[in-house]
Records
---
Amino acid sequence: MHSEVMNEPADGVFSHVWEWPADEAKQGRRALAWCTGPAGELAVLVVHERHLRHVDYIKGWVGWTVPAPCPAEVITVIGREVRRTPLEEVPAFSSQLALMADGRFVLASGRTRRVQPVGIWEPNAVLYCRAGTPERQFCIGDDIAALVSDRQDRIWTAHGDEGIFSGHPESGTGLAAWDAQGRSVWTAAKEKPAPALQGCTAATDGDDVWLVWKAGTRGRETYLTRITPSTGETVHYLSPVPEPDGFAVHGARALLTARDHEQPSLTLTRAELLDGTWAATSRHCLTVPGRVVLHCGQGRDAALRYRTGDTWISIPV
């Protein structure tokens, strides 16, 4: 039986994590791709705008792109500690960031292409050591819509329609995983409840990984897929919220968010797993510190990290 959806007050729902300093922004340094690490760290890629190109019709920080290799910095926030890692060069079109458990990190471009006539897919990800030196490069699929790392340094990806239909063997399944060497270690099974069309977001809960995606069927249902890497068990659930931009889960409780695009507000839905079905238990609108755009949420172990402009907040499950 589904629980009745009730409104609830938003007071005290979230806590402040970190804010990109205004004086650095005034100097032209832009906070771009970001992620939450396996231990809850916040990591942010920073590039000076003189190296960037701005796409005027794309709102917010996602409108800044890296058109050519350039120097950059990765800032890692752990509690009150802020660590800066300078990078001599980041690849063009770096738009995704993932932290490994040992402090290494991956920068990736969302797209790749097949080199003809040999048919090899171009590398679109670079693994850096903790000090910021590149270790290797590899390909992790085409049109990466969402990306998250796990405690064993695997990289999990959910792909967009251009990657699903690009001919790339792993991203063609919609969902995939890779090890730190860039080798494919998992793809979505053929018995998915529906063909995938678009990745939405990703999360972890302990050793479990969750990938959220929209189906390509007529109803455009959204699914929450839980993968347990140690056993290979994969379970698909219908999402109580269509196309959420943020998802966090702990056991049988979860929260899902849907932004008011380019507005400082979102809809927060809490849900419980009841008799094998995720059911919404409460829903309310939430005012946040900054305007919300794409790539705004990532769930880690019972909390959702959410980007609102250049301010990051945490919402507990």
---
Amino acid sequence: MENTPVNVQLVGKENGDYLILFPDLDIPVKVNQNLYLKMKQSHDYRFINFLQQDSKTMTA
């Protein structure tokens, strides 16, 4: 049985930490850069706004 990835959303950055919104949570979770990078590379999480952010950065 294969797990489906959890859709998460990067909603901001605060004092060097990343604010990630998980489904069914009302407030974002604050993670450090190391954990954020691990989450981005993991197949367990899918950042739903990640591609939009990168495409804006690449074209600027």
---
Amino acid sequence: MPGLQWIWKGLHSRNTRPLSIPYLKFPMANSTVWQAVSAILIVLVVHKIWTLQRALKCVSHIPGRQFLWIDPFHAVSLVLGSTFPWAGRIGHYSAKFSLYEKYGSTCLSTVRLWNSQVYYWIADADALKIVTSDRHTFQKDVQAVSI
């Protein structure tokens, strides 16, 4: 194949022109559309990192501080409840109260990765009474409660 010989020769010869493969060129690399799309992606990534850091700062004094991939109170978690999240993670179905014992607290915290929402996992009966009775301070997710 003459094309491969030319590439090989171009890589090892000093007097040849720089290696250029036409099908590897990106036609949009210099366009303003490409620059706008990359700028928007950079802004979104920076915003996501900032919101995750802010959420983790809110729960910095509460044990746990793990990330959740899916919302623990919606349909997907009901389907995957026996297998996801994995053993040893907050929200695992078979963990029961072992994680509270591991962290030495009756309140654990997690942050949902996709929207930076903070979840508190409570195992104290008195605290649960306060949370369930004070509906103005502790607002419930109406969509999750209706399932």
---
Amino acid sequence: MQQITTALVLGANRYKVERQTGGYLYLLEPGDHENPDALGLGIRKVKMPYEMYDQLRDKRVPAVFDVLTEAERAGQEADNEIAVSVRGDGKLTAETLNELFGISASAKAPGKVPDQPLQGAAYALVIAASRFEAEDGRRYSNIVISQKTSGRNPNQLGFEIIRIPIAWDLFAAFQAKGLPGEYKLLTSLRSGSGFKARLKVDGVEGENYLDQTRLHQLFGVQPQQPQAPRPANPEAPAKPA
């Protein structure tokens, strides 16, 4: 079964490990407001063929595309979604961003995000947050932040998605502030497995820096200027008798 989804493609990447190749599209969609354990926007991770990445290389990403997908059998009771094609020139307007992020023209940020944040803090675009409680009683919660790719990886386009665990109680703080938004995150580095550092978010403070001006700046779009009304047609001169 195939279906076409018109969505904002936030980013894309591909991989080639030994004999296995593939890639992923990340689609940004309106969130599930009926789920009390989910905040912000929805993020769909869609598998794609390795070669499809080349179709996007010369197009604008992030941008809105028509993504043709089909279900791929993954197990006895689950299907994976795989992209068959990505159609369109890749357009993104300020109006599309305003509607998706739910930011009104009257919303104003408290100031500009500093270029050099304080040590132990990071300003980040928080797209979504979620939490769930396992059957054994353990609780898990995380946030999803997004930022522009560095451009150094030839197999990555657009924005990258980073999922970071947070304390269970911190979910309520994001719920009170509202998502999506750009906030100052209090962070710390912890030791992880295999001598790898693990970033932890310990808190969130301050106001939301994401207004329409900042949103358009992040995505590199210009709002359409209102057109001046056309002057009324002058009356035709009277013909001489």
